[in-house]
Each structure stands twice: as structure tokens, then as C-alpha cells.
Amino acid sequence: MRHILATFLVLTSVSLLAQPTQKWLIKVGKLYDAEHKTFLTNQQILVVNGIIQAVGRNLNKPVNIKVINLGQCTAAPGLMDMHTHLLLHQKQRKDGLEMASKVSANERIRQGLAFAKLNLEAGITTVRDLGNSGQYLDLQLQKILADERTIGPTMYVSGPIISPPGGQFYKPAPADSFLIDQEYRIVKGADDAKAAVEEHIQRGVNVIKVCMNNDNRVLAPEEIKAIVERAHQHGLSVTAHATYDDSARDAVLAGVDGIEHGYSLSDSTLQLMAQRGTYLVPTDVSKQTADIKVAGIGMVGKEAEEYANNFLKAIHDRLRRAVAKGVIIVAGSDYYGDIALIERGKGAVDVLLSYYEAGIPVGDVLSYATYNAAKVQGIVDKVGIIKSGMKADIVFFRGDLENNFAKSLFSVKLIMKDGRLVYPPADSSAGRTNLTPGSR
Q1: Domain 2-77+383-433 falls in which CATH fold?
Q2: How far apart are alpha carbons 29 and 286 in whole angstroms?
Q3: What are the residue ranges spanned by the domains of the chain?
Q4: Cα 318 to chain center, whole Å?
Q5: pLDDT tens, position by position, 336-362
Q6: Biggest CA pair distance of the chain
Q7: What was the pLDDT predicted at 181?
Q8: What is the C-alpha to C-alpha distance for residues 347 and 286, in angstroms, rounded to an integer?
Q9: Cα separation, 418 vs 188, whole angstroms
Q10: pTM (2 decimals)?
């Protein structure tokens, strides 16, 4: 593990640009106000020692300050992806999960570090990793990413997914039965469910992730209730993988804080979620990504087009109904694919484009990945908003993010993490950075 960390730090060293700078004054053409879901023009951001000191027009310029002019860019709080699997890299094949889980622990950590860096470079400064990470490999990755020399987002982790017998998806072939013990914490009964939560708490996880249903089984009401009660007693939230309406409703009635996926939620379940303050993480995809994924499973022509369009129609309808009911929406990509045409960071940010394609206004879409995400994770006093007193996690997009969302979203100019400029990286061959303070 030490060798992996040392190698990674050498490969990702960023010279002077990534070092903490005492004072920055950044001038932008537009700034996204996450609290009010609006865009402000011609704004300046003053950052001192990693903390935002002031935001507004014509700020007083302190002495000995670095000025960056980004008049053609839009500033937004660092994006948050609340459903990641950084330690999983799965091909589109029937045995994809089994094959990805056979990768050694050291290699999974190495891959996870690389994926974390790609996520950061796409504008994601915070992730919540929800299982499929072996037995607590996510805690190891979290520790490495907490080192200020490592380039990657802040990471919150769940540990192994707490699941009914069979794990999360289906019963694997006998030769692949290792998958269940390696990737999940199977529970049998309410007492065992409580014990599973205690194990996770002792390890130091930040959130509890449960699998309400797989293809054949569900967590029993007394099991999910026991999990929620014990987690809440220790101040941890619980989020539930639930793809079917019945299992999602059972989870909401048991008091879970969030529902992951929720592809087929009924109006009555959405109404219950709104009443109880249960958030929804719609792990959706854009039209382009849907087409690529459908082609990857061998569908072509009219069949492929109809399949993709019907899926998109269903998830768009579910999202719009959830919004109309007043359900809290939180962005989460669930992107872990080993797909040549979809780079890892782009695959994560793609979920925001999917919400936009569903007809959600840009200001709302961005709130799902900033203010809402920070609020449900309990860190809205630190990140998710660009205002005085907040940590300086800021992403600067080229162009007008408000009016040219689909293009600007995938065109990152600059990223500030903990008050450090971490992207673009230094031009090590020239011995200097490839961004000059004061340039456009």
C-alpha cells in the first residue's frame, strides 16, 4: 500500500500550481448561487488560506494577492457525486461484476486513485462511495485521498453494502460465490442487521448503504427497521438501493434517509418520500450514454433505438414526477463502467446532463450536485455554496454554463480544491504551470 501511494504521488505531483497559496482573487463572468439557484454576473471571489472570504463585485484587492481573470467562465461550487463506485471497473458482460471483483486489492486501490483523479478533473470535488469496494477497501482509499499531496475529491464511504442473502444482484455461479462474502455484508434477521451496522460503525464509515432488493429477495421490514434505528442512534444516515416501488416504499416506511435509483417509483411512494423528507438519487444517463450502453450489450438498429428511448422516457417521467411532488433530488452517477467510449470523469458528470434532458432547469440541476448533496451529507456548512466562510472547493467552466449547459458542463477551465489550484496540472516538462494568473 505504501508503494502504491508513493508511486501515485510521484505521477500526480503538480508543482507550484497545486501548492497552497495564501491569497487569490478570481474574477468570473458568471457565478452560480447554489442557495438561490440563480446565476450572478461579473463576480469576484476572494480566497485566503483555503477559505472563501468574500464574494461580490469590485471587492477590495488585498496586497500581495494573485489575481486570475476568468471573465469568459462560470464559477460553481465543486460538484458532488453522491453515488460512486471508485473501486469497481466493470465491463459490459454477463460476468462483469465477478471479473471486476477478482482484481487484487492493491490493483483496485490503484484504479480507484486514478478514477478519483479523473472525477476531480471533471469538476467533482466530493464523492460518496457506496459499496462494491471489497471489505472496506473504500476506507483505505479514503485515507489516501485525505493526504493533501494526493489529487482527488473528498471521499465519504459506506463500507460493504448490507444486503439480503444473495447479495445485490443475483445468485452467481458456484465458482463465483466468493463475490457474496467479498463485496457484501449479508444479514439474516434483525439482530444480525444491528450487528452489521455496529461493525460498520466500528470501522469508521460515514453512511450506511443497504440493498433493499435483488432479483429474488428483499430485506425484511424488521431488518431494515433495525438497521435504520441503530444507524440513527449513532448519527449515521441510511440510504437504500431500491429499484422496485414496493421495496422503496418499505425502506421509506422504515425511515431510511435516501433512495438510490428508484427507477419505478409510484406517485404514492413519491408523495410519502416528500412528506418524510426522504431524498432520491436518480442514477440516470443521457441520451448519448444510453445509446452507447445499449450498443454495448449487442442491440442495433430500431430495436436499440426503441429500447433506449423507452428507458429514457420512463426515467425522465419518474424524475419530473418526483420534482413535482417536492421530493429532494440529489445527484449521483453510479458510473463504474469499463466502456472505451465513456471516460470515467465524463461518465460521472453525465448524470447532470440526463437531468437537464429531462427538462429540469439548469439552476435546479446544479443544486442537486451542490447545495442538496451537501445538505443531505451534513456538510452544507463547509461546501456546496460559494460564499464567505465556506471551504474553497470551486470549479470554473468555460463559457456560459447557464445558457450553454450541455457544452460548458464538459469543458472545465480550472479547479480549486481546499483553496489549492489542482487543475490543470503543472507543465512539468517546462518547469512551469500552463495557467498564468491574470489570463482569460
Answers
A1: Urease, subunit C; domain 1 (2.30.40)
A2: 28
A3: 2-77+383-433, 160-377
A4: 20
A5: 999 999 999 999 999 999 999 999 999
A6: 68
A7: 86
A8: 10
A9: 43
A10: 0.91
At residue 165, the pLDDT reads 86
CATH number of 160-377: 3.20.20.140
Pairwise CA distance, residues 6 & 393, whole Å: 25
Contact 132, 160 (CB under 8 A): no
- What's the DSSP call for residue 129? E
pLDDT band, residue 97 (cuts 50/70/90): confident
Closest CA to 333 of 102, 98, 88, 152: 88
C-alpha span between 73 and 54 (Å, rounded): 19
Highest mean pLDDT among 13-27, 119-133, 160-174: 119-133
The C-alpha angle 440, 150, 345, rounded to 5 degrees, equals 60
CATH topology agreement for domains 2-77+383-433 and 160-377: no
DSSP per-residue codes, 240-304:
EEE-SHHHHHHHHHHT-SEEEE-TT--HHHHHHHHHHT-EEE-----HHHHHHHHHHTT--HHHH
Q: Is 384 helix (H, G, I), strand (E, B) or coil?
A: coil
Q: What are the Cα distances from residue 3, in Å, to 14, 18, 101, 139, 147?
A: 19, 22, 22, 17, 15
Is it the case that residue 434 has pLDDT exceeding 80?
no
H or E segment and range at residue 48:
strand 38-48
Q: 154-157 and 124-129 as β-strands: parallel, antiparallel, unpaired?
A: parallel
Residues in CB range of 437: below 8 A, 6 or more apart? 66, 67, 68
Q: How high is the pLDDT of residue 174?
A: 63
Rounded to a whole number of angstroms, the distance between the first and last alpha carbons of the chain is 41
Distance of CA 144 to the CA centre of its chain: 18
